[in-house]
């Protein structure tokens, strides 16, 4: 990679996951490599969020495995979280902290010095057009601004893999393109990007598409 980052590979092998007695994922296989930008499409309720949750290591499949650079996620220990940037629809922001503090939090947890964490947070918030609101509490931000803060938090990690669930769904027209640009730009430094989306314009910006329906994943 141009910045010296080694190549990364995240692979899902024969994933089976059930929710409420229904098999949501039925033998899903997927391989993601550094620099790839993949759109994950499918109807509502098809399991896109479930798949991202498993790929991120927040849920364990009943069968199958997720490997990062050939090793199960659990084998990476504390070193796993900084390598995976995740944007879920619930955002997961701490309401009593500012936007900047929310972005800094995982960086500090990963051991970055305070000054470096602050610098990365400012850079990421500027990238999504939220620099002027960086010192506002989360509860003072609109839904779209909160979503951009969640995107900035993932970007600031400079992760090997970025998993984003409908990351532009709450954005107005003025900010949608800029947010998507910031996400997709990470691929240029070797990040593997997966975007779950219903928006055909977002999917069209990716290099490839996979479609999840009836528990099965196919090229789109």
Automatic annotation (TrEMBL):
Name of one Pfam family that matches: ABC_tran
Domain of life: Bacteria
KW ATP-binding (keyword) present: yes
GO CC, alphabetical: plasma membrane
Entry keywords, A to Z: ATP-binding, Nucleotide-binding
Official protein name in the record: Putative ABC transport system ATP-binding protein
Residues in ABC transporter domain copies: 10-220
Presence of the UniProt keyword Lipid biosynthesis in the record: no
GO MF annotations, alphabetized: ATP binding; ATP hydrolysis activity; transmembrane transporter activity
PANTHER family, per the entry: IMPORT ATP-BINDING PROTEIN
């Amino acid at each position: 990679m141009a910045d010296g980052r080694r190549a990364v590979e995240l692979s899902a092998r024969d994933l089976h996951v059930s929710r409420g007695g229904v098999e949501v994922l039925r033998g899903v296989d997927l391989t993601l490599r550094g620099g790839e930008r993949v759109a994950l499409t499918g109807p509502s309720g098809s399991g896109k969020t479930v798949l991202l949750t498993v790929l991120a290591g927040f849920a364990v499949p009943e069968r199958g495995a997720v490997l990062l650079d050939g090793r199960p996620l659990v084998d990476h220990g504390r070193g796993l979280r900084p390598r995976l940037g995740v944007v879920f629809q619930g955002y997961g922001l701490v309401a009593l902290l500012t936007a900047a503090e929310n972005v800094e939090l995982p960086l500090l947890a990963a051991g970055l010095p305070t000054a470096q964490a602050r610098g990365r947070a400012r850079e990421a918030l500027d990238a999504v057009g939220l620099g002027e609101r960086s010192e506002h509490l989360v509860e003072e931000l609109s839904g779209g601004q909160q979503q951009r803060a969640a995107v900035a938090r993932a970007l600031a990690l400079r992760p090997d893999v970025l998993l984003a669930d409908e990351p532009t769904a709450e954005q107005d027209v003025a900010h949608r393109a800029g947010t998507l640009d910031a996400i997709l730009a990470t691929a240029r430094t070797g990040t593997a990007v997966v975007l779950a989306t219903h928006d055909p314009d977002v999917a069209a910006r990716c290099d490839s598409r996979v479609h999840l329906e009836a528990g099965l994943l196919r090229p789109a």
